[in-house]
Write a structure and sequence with these properties.
- α1 runs antiparallel to α4 and α14 runs antiparallel to α15.
- A 6-stranded mixed β-sheet has the order 5-4-3-6-8-7, covered by helices on one side.
- 39% of the residues are buried.
- It folds into 3 domains: 324 residues, no CATH class; 85 residues; 116 residues, no CATH class.
- It is globular and about 75 Å long.
- By secondary structure, it is mainly α.
- The termini are far apart.
């Protein structure tokens, strides 16, 4: 079964890498991580992350380090930025397999867990854009695997490895990285009636975890003690309880709707089955209790947090996948046939949507790519409908995989040809390069933070801060005023003067969003430019 899994992982990795560097960085999160990592590589400063020349201490640096390694191997480009996301995905799928096997002791169920996990839409979303979440979930799963291995072998080095990986999870996204694995351990002990034993190994392991997780934080705080208050109050307490100030606040029920949607169709399969069998399944095994309780408590806990983004709930989905694999072989023949039909419907919708894009003028289409993907999708549908001789349970699993691989190909083709739709600056950067060549002394961006501008144009980017909250920068940790060459605050009289002086220099490019033009009282400054072009949602002056 492991050989079968490795073949699947190889196929998945190949498809994942097709065109991975062909589409531009998406604003704002992916562009932010990519640009920070680029500046880290160029400056050689791996202690203080910077974004457009200003210290950016919002997150621990492990994602930047991993991305920097990608740049060192493949160059500073989109492929280098995203390469290790593919490695993270493979590790996640493999770890789901290993965790399921340690829990259930059945390779068939473990293999099904891996396939189900790989078919979740949210898993694909997490690895097609550079963020911390894919790496965080990898460390979460790794730590749970190590803890379960320790439980079965009783070898202390697995316990130390568990604590070390917890430290890496903390270095990826802070304290939130500790919640899923520790909650899983707590649920395991509660339902198996195991007492918490505090031993020397646990003490030393905890010290190891604190040393790893706090290594970067302690170094930064020793250099600048006020960073401590910033981390605790701004990045932990306020993000959890007052997310409105970060414009990430969502109602309590936000995830209660998103989880079913992003877990389709397997959430539907699982829910349909449990509607009549919940009590029976709950009492059948402590493993079911641990998996269900961990998933539900995580969902409620994340729902209670004020700050909510889609990818925050990714750690729930490995548990859903394992639960789905356990229940899969309990589905009736009638249920499996109905569930299989849902994939036939999804494939049909996918095929019709692909055909529709060819005739929809708002979407740019590469005809050769679209026809190829259509051929693959139609081939999958015909294979599963008429040719495949595998049993119904396996067919259901493999239809999910086939559908997922088609989605990967579609995303690559769509994103490569529709930079505006995915909110990428790449097309705009190409236009500026075509018009100006290397003669761009600086790019002036009015009232919008655009980190990928430097990534693509490799020139000085000057952010003009006016009314948009996105342009706010934490400058309290700067040791001098050099940062002001990259940031102008129009509310500051002295900065307003500097802003006007910018337009006296040659070879400047100024851009603003159509919906947020410069104040009428300053619009006369734009008369110094000879060209004005409207492109996508931007207006360009040069």
């Amino acid at each position: 079964m492991q050989a079968k899994l490795l073949k699947f992982l190889l196929l998945f990795f190949v498809v994942f890498n097709i065109g991975l560097g062909s589409f531009g960085l998406a604003e704002t999160s992916e562009a932010r991580y990519a640009e920070i990592s680029k500046e880290m590589v160029i400056s050689g400063d791996f202690l203080y992350p910077t974004k457009l020349g200003i210290k950016h201490l919002h997150k621990p640096p492990l994602t930047y380090y991993i991305t920097s390694l990608g740049y060192k191997i493949f160059g500073i480009n989109e492929y280098g930025a995203r390469f290790f996301l593919g490695i993270a995905l493979l590790l996640q799928i493999y770890l789901v397999f290993k965790i399921a096997f340690l829990l259930i002791k059945d390779e068939k169920i473990a293999y099904a867990s891996a396939l189900i996990y790989s078919s979740f839409p949210l898993v694909l979303i997490a690895v097609r854009n550079l963020t911390t979440d894919a790496y965080l979930v990898t460390f979460i799963l790794w730590s749970i695997f190590l803890w379960l291995t320790y439980k079965q072998s009783n070898k202390p080095h697995y316990l130390y490895a568990f604590f070390a990986v917890l430290g890496l999870a903390f270095l990826t996204k802070g304290p939130v990285g500790l919640i899923p694995p520790l909650l899983f351990v707590g649920c395991w002990k509660y339902f198996n009636k195991e007492k918490f034993h505090f031993s020397l190994h646990v003490l030393l392991g905890t010290i190891l975890m604190l040393a790893i997780s706090g290594s970067w934080f302690f170094t930064i705080i020793l250099d600048s003690p006020k960073v401590w208050d910033y981390f605790v109050h701004e990045q932990i307490i306020n993000r959890a309880t007052h997310a409105a100030q970060f414009h990430r606040s969502q109602p309590f029920w936000y995830y209660l709707i998103l989880v079913p949607v992003l877990g389709l169709p397997w959430i539907f399969f699982i829910t349909t089955y449990l509607l009549n069998k919940f009590k029976e399944e709950w009492n059948s095994s402590n493993i079911i209790k641990v998996i269900l309780s961990t998933s539900i408590v995580l969902l409620l806990l994340f729902s209670l947090f004020s700050s909510k983004l889609i990818l925050y709930i990714l750690p729930i989905f490995p548990f859903i996948a394992i639960l789905g694999s356990v229940l899969l072989y309990k589905f009736s023949e009638k249920q499996i046939k109905w569930f299989s039909r849902s994939y036939y419907v999804l494939f049909t919708i996918l095929i019709l949507a692909l055909i529709g894009t060819i005739f929809y003028p708002e979407i740019e289409v590469d005809l050769v790519q679209t026809i190829f993907i259509l051929f693959v999708a139609i081939g999958c549908l015909i294979y599963f409908l008429k040719i495949s001789k595998i049993n119904d349970s396996s067919k259901l699993l493999h239809m999910g995989v086939g559908f997922t691989l088609c989605l990967l190909l579609i995303h690559t083709s769509f994103a490569s040809n529709n930079a505006k739709t995915i909110n990428s600056f790449k097309g705009l950067a190409k236009f500026i390069q075509h018009e100006k060549g290397d003669k761009v002394n600086s790019l002036i961006v009015y009232d919008y933070l655009l980190p990928s501008a430097d990534f693509y144009l490799d020139t000085q980017v000057i952010t003009i801060q006016d009314n948009n909250y996105r342009t706010f920068r934490e400058t309290q940790f700067e040791n001098d005023t050099l940062y002001k060459k990259n940031l102008i605050n129009l509310k500051d009289p002295s900065d307003s003067k500097r802003f006007k002086q910018l337009f006296q220099k040659e070879d400047q490019v100024y851009i603003e969003r159509k919906k947020s033009p410069i104040n009428d009282s300053l619009s006369y400054l734009l008369e110094t430019f000879t060209h004005k072009i409207e492109k996508d949602s931007w207006v360009i002056y040069y």
